[in-house]
Task: inverse folding
């Protein structure tokens, strides 16, 4: 898959914005800059949602991120074989789903080699309950109702919940970004 010029420019712009935010954070925490005037705004960005309390990059993790005080939910998206974005951090599906059980012959289980219909058949939550990756279940910070909801949790398509377009057309417009922002919980 080749990336067109507009997409490259969009990716470069997003990367530049990310680097600028990182620079602001680095400057704000630099001990050599103590006493120097700092930016007033510091954002609490929940990468992959509240991924210590719910399976990463799921709507449950996104909702919990906002409920626990995040200003921004940083999502990772991957493109499926049929051109749909899904919420997914990894390039492959094997770490956080049951893809090996449902599709044992399709190793290495790259997201881009599966259609949305196939991906939506996967369990995207049981791994979290089984592995307790941050020890929050053992610590008693996640209750039985949440845990039972995570078992068998369906995979989330980014566009089912307010994200723009059904299919990626290579660009995201300002109106699309506003629509996503307005669809967030609490807006």
Result:
């Amino acid at each position: 898959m080749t990336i067109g010029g507009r997409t490259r420019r969009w990716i470069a712009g997003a990367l530049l914005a990310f680097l600028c935010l990182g620079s602001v954070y680095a400057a704000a925490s630099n001990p050599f800059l103590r006493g120097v005037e700092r930016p007033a705004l510091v954002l609490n960005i929940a990468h992959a949602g509240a991924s210590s309390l719910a399976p990463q990059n799921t709507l449950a993790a996104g909702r919990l991120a906002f409920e626990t005080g995040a200003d921004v939910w940083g999502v990772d998206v991957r493109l499926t074989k049929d051109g749909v974005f899904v919420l997914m951090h990894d390039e492959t599906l094997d770490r956080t789903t049951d893809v090996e059980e449902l599709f044992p012959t399709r190793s290495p289980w790259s997201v881009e080699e599966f259609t949305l219909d196939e991906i939506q058949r996967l369990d995207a939550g049981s791994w979290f309950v089984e592995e307790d990756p941050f020890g929050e279940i053992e610590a008693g910070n996640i209750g039985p109702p949440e845990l039972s909801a995570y078992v068998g949790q369906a995979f989330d398509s980014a566009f089912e919940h307010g994200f723009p377009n059904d299919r990626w057309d290579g660009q995201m417009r300002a109106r699309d970004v506003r629509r996503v922002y307005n669809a967030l919980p609490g807006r």
Observations:
- The longest strand covers residues 45-47.
- Confidence is low (pLDDT under 50) at residues 164-175.
- The first helix runs from residue 5 to 29.
